[in-house]
Amino acid sequence: MGEDRRLAAVVALAQGMAAAHGSREAWRAAATGACRALGGSFAALSVWERELGRLRVLVNVGERAEGEEEFPDDEAYPVHQFAEITEFLHEQWAGGGRPGAWVETAEGPAAGRRPGYCHQRVAALRRRGRGCCVVAPIVLHGRAWGELYVARPAGAPVFARADAEFATVLAAVVAAGIAQTERLEEARRLAFTDALTGLANRRAVDIRLEKAIERHRADGVVVSLVVCDLNGLKRVNDTHGHAVGDRLLERFGTLLSVCGAMLPGALAARLGGDEFCLLAVGLSADQVVKAADEVCRRAAEWEIGDGVACGVASTDDPIGPVRSARRLFRLADAAQYRAKAERAVHPVVAGREGPDDPVVRLADEPSVEADGERRRFRGRHSP
Coil, helix or strand for 157? Predict the structure, then answer.
C-alpha cells in the first residue's frame, strides 16, 4: 500500500471513530477501519481486564468464523495464553523501547514476530481457517489497554514487517479514539447523573419523561411517575450534621434503586434536595404503586429520618388526558404533598382518592394560580 493510501486509511479510521456515538460504535469503527487499512478479512478489538486476568473480545468484524459474534457477551481468553500482552510489552518498555505489532502465521514464525508466544495464536488461526494475523498492542495512558487483531484467510499473502509497523500506527490512532470516546461518555454520564447518589438527575428525568409522554400520546403506552420526599432531612442535618444527612440521602437513593428494580426499565432519580422519583413506562399502575409502597415500608423502618412521602400519578388511572410531561409531574407532586400533609404511611395515588383528589383541582392547562404553582415547583427542583 502506498504512502498516500495509508495516510488516507489512517484519516478514515480516525474519522470513523470520531463520528461514533458511544463505545460500541467506536469499537466497530476501530476494527473495521484497521481491517480495511491492512487489507484483512477479519479484525477484532480486545481489552485487557487486569482484575480478571483475561483478554475480553469487544467486537469482531469481517468474515467471522462459526461461533464468533459481532459483539460477544463472553468471548474471553486467559491472559497467560497470550503472554505478550503483559510480559513482552513490559519487557519492551523496560528497555526503553515502545510496544510494536507483530505477525503470526498458521505455519509458524513470520516477519516482525518475537519468538516464544505463538502457540495459542497459531492454533486459533488454523482452527478458524485463517492464514496469518497481525497483533498490535493498544496503549492508553501509558499502560497496555488491549489489542487490535487483524487476520487474512489461508492462501492470502502473509503480513510483512511493513504491515506490522503500520498496524502499530493504527493502534495508536485507535487508542486516541478510545480515549476521546471515554471522555465524551464520562461527560454525558456526569451531565445526567446526580453526583451524591449516583442516580439519574432532573435533566435525565425531563428528557425521558418527554419521550415517554410522546409515546403515550401516539400509542397509548402507560406512563407512571412516583415522586418521593424524604421526611426529616432538615432535622437530621441540624441534629447530626450534613455528613449524616448526605449518608441518609445516599441510603435512600440505594433503596429507591432496589425497589425500582421491581419495575423493569424504570428510571430512579434524585430531583434535587430531599426529592426523588421513579419513572416507569409500559407497566400497570398497580405494579408501580406496589413498588412505591415498598419504598414507603422500608424507609419507615429506618432508625434515622421520618420515612418518606410518596405520590403516584399514572396514565393507567382515571386522571384525565395527559398531554404533557408537566401535567403528570404536577399530579404526582400534588399527590406527594397530600401524603406529606397527612403523614401517610402508604403512597397517595392520583385518581384514586375521591373528591379531594389532586386530579380534580389541577386543570390540564394552567390557570394564573396554577402557573404560579408551576413556577414554585420548578424552583424547588432546579438542579
Answer: coil
